[in-house]
Write a structure and sequence with these properties.
globular, alpha/beta, 3-stranded antiparallel sheet, Aspartate Aminotransferase, domain 2, binds pyridoxal-5'-phosphate, Aspartate Aminotransferase, domain 1
Length: about 350
Amino acid sequence: MGGGALLGSSMLPRIGLIEEAFGEEFPRPDYMIRAGWNENPWGPSRVALQAIVDSIKMSNLYGGNRRALTDLMGTIHNLPTDHISIGTGSGEILRTAGMLASVDKGSVVCADPTYHDLIRYAETAGSKIIRVPVNPETLHVDLNAMHKAIRKDTKCVYIANPNNPIPSIIEKNALREFTLDVSKDRMVFIDEAYFEFVDNPDYESLMDLVRDGHKNIVVARTASKIHGLAGMRIGFGFAHPELTGQINDAKTGAINVLGLNAAYASYQDQDFQEFTVRRNKESLSIVETMLDELGHRYVKSNANFSFIYTGRDINEVNQAFKAENILVGRPFPPMTDWVRVSMAKPHEMEYFAQVYRKILG
Ligand SMILES: Cc1ncc(COP(=O)(O)O)c(C=O)c1O
């Protein structure tokens, strides 16, 4: 037991202070560490917070200056503004695309497991969902198998790159070739929610295909992850104007002035994005070093979360971590003996590593 025990629990300083004071052993924090939702533990940035405060007095208004944010995104991505759709989170863009793809029923092809928003919505709207298992060895999205799974009636192929809950990426040339080919006859939806975290020479955004005028390709991004604005609900779809037009007509959400102005400020704050990436790498390094030391199986992360094989039922693992004040990810069928762990702050991940060794080491 570390020196924290000497203080008595009512006098314990918060975990960050304990780290400095007592070195190796970390007492349980007096709050729940959120490692279950792939949120940004640092955000919103100071400039975004200031924008939110400054915008509160505009809360009597419907909407806000959507034009300013669209223009800014156009400048950042070198795209005309008619190629940009703003959603209440990228989730709204995903769900709307899933619904549009299901108007004439048909099928949607996706990896398994992957992020659920587009898929679930398409299924509810009447599409047959064709789930293509990831490669059992590497756990990478299996593009060849996905290609084979595409049917005549397939209206959409959904790809999260990086994927979620598995933080893998798809090799850039293979994905580009696949997307150009498959999008000739149907929508290809590339979800780049974790784009900003990737530091991998094999990775590339497909935003340039939208810029080049390809008609059936949607690229989605979000302010929820690197910008720490998940609660403000701002995300983006980038596509040919015919497609953004359809998406805009079908969306049902309403963006609010706080989210708009927070995102407008945050997307201009490069320092905060760099800071988040740096600290995320520190957290990942703590977790991955621990897993390497234990020789445990996990997927090297290209995002802000880790996916770890536990060999135990996820509900049991969830409860064990919860008892130690850590909330880890929910079950991701069919991989229910794996756990997804989102990166909290580095000192919190030191505590996580200590608890992990105790529970699963
Ligand atoms: C791959 C992926 N896409 C999209 C989203 C949706 O994010 P939001 O609706 O907050 O933009 C998430 C959220 O976790 C995600 O993991």
